Each structure stands twice: as structure tokens, then as C-alpha cells.
Amino acid sequence: MPEHYLQADNANLCYEVEGTGPFIVIVPGGNGGSRLFRRFRDLLVEHFTVVLYDRRGYFRSNLTGPQDYSKRLETDVEDLRIIMANVTQEKFILFGISSSGALLMTYLNKYPETLLKLFVHEPMLYIDTFEGKDELQKFHLDTYNTYQTEGRNVAMEEFGNKYFNELDYYILVRKQKDDIVNNWDYWFQHEWKEYPFAKVDWKAVKTHREKTVLLYGIDSTGYNIREPGKAIAEYLNVEYLQFAGGHIGFYFESKKFFVNFIELCKKLSLLPEQQN
């Protein structure tokens, strides 16, 4: 797949474009990379023009100068904007998961006119009224301290045990042990404490509720990763829709997840009903 590069503010952003049909961009979460979404992308391309990209600082999107990490979230939002402005002037669908939740909601508030629909799968983003938010923020701080004192592997175990079912834990924690390709260190350093508790204008999000779709994986039922999205859905008074698999159902159950997604897109008139 051809790689495209776009110079942004002190970063060289890498993205891929494939397929035909309405534009959809997939925003990666924790490790910032697009690799995990390629199975899903390869199914979507029969219906959509799919944009995959690596967020700055991850994989192929290299940093080229100093970063203002006090504005990390705002920079992530602007990176997404300039990539899509370079790809199309049409409205597009936004799909993201997990730690990209703050990025997705902030983008929605800032650039709603660019979006057809926003799909948010199991966001790790805590609304202000979330019960136990203070304790969870302390957990994230304690795990960050573990990262600093005992290293990434131990911190990842704490993170995985807190949030995931066994299958998601296997891919996202156990298989990542000592990995040097997935930049989990960068995530711990700049997003783990910040993004789940980012300041989001939830009243503004509510004005865009008709554009917002919250999803969770059936296999995440009973696990903590399901709960933040449930609270957001309740606040917005929208349905929390069940899909195949767990936190990364688009990877483990890609075909079933794809069928769920296509059926939902048809229901939402994003695709024609008669399309196979």
C-alpha cells in the first residue's frame, strides 16, 4: 500500500488511502499505529475509501522537531484535520477506539461540519460524572509511577489487568512484552495520564449527539474498558451499541465486526441498503 507523507508542525505524518466510496478515517488509540486495523481496512475498502494513519510520534509518523506536550491533544486534532483536508474536501466518517476518545470528541466539537458520523469504540475517556473517576485517575498516576520505577512491562501488566479480557490482554499486553516497534513508552510518557481525563466540553458534544455513535464489544462485558463509553452514551442519551469481539474485535473478529459495521452504516443511511 503506497505511503503518503505530510509535513506538519515538527512532524512528518504518514497515511494510506485505499478503496472507493464514502471516506472513512480510522484513528488509532494507545500505541498510535495503524497496523492493528489493516484486517478491518481490507474488508472496508469494498464500500469505503479508507484512510489509515499513524499518529505523530508513533511508527512511521516521525517527529522532526521540538514538541509542545502541553498542547499534545490539540496537536493530535490538528494533525487529523490537515491529513483529511489533504485527502478530500468531502465530509467523512470518523472511527476510533480507546485512547483516541479525547481526540475524537475534541475533533467533533471543533470541526463538526467536516463529519458525516463519528463512531467511537470503547473510548478510554472519563466523563466528569463518571462514578469513581478520582480513584481511576489515581490508578493511572500510580501506574505511571510504576512505569518510571519498574519499567514498561510491569506497567502494561497493571494496565491490562485493570481493563481487559484475556484475549485482549494477550495481544495488547503479553505479546507486547519487550516489543521495540510499538511505541508504548511514548504513550505512557505523554498520553496515559492525560488523555483519559482530558477536559472535553461535554455540553458541546451533546449538541452533536446526532453525529455520535458509541460502540462496545460483547466480550468486554464485565470488564472495565466497557464502562467509560457506557457513561458517555448515557449522558448523550444515545444507545450503546454491541459489536462482535472485545476491545479489539475489529482484529480478532474482523469479519463479524465488519458485518456489524456495514449493517449499522446502512441503517444510518451512510451506505445504500441494496449494497452487498
UniProtKB/TrEMBL annotation:
A Pfam family found in this protein is Abhydrolase_1
Q: Which residues form the AB hydrolase-1 domain?
A: 23-176
- Gene3D superfamilies with a match to the protein in the record: alpha/beta hydrolase
Show the InterPro entries listed in the entry.
AB_hydrolase_1 (IPR000073), AB_hydrolase_fold (IPR029058)
Per the UniProt entry, the signal peptide is none
Q: What domain of life does the UniProt record list for this protein's source? A: Eukaryota
Q: What is this protein called?
A: AB hydrolase-1 domain-containing protein
Q: From which source organism is this entry?
A: Thamnidium elegans
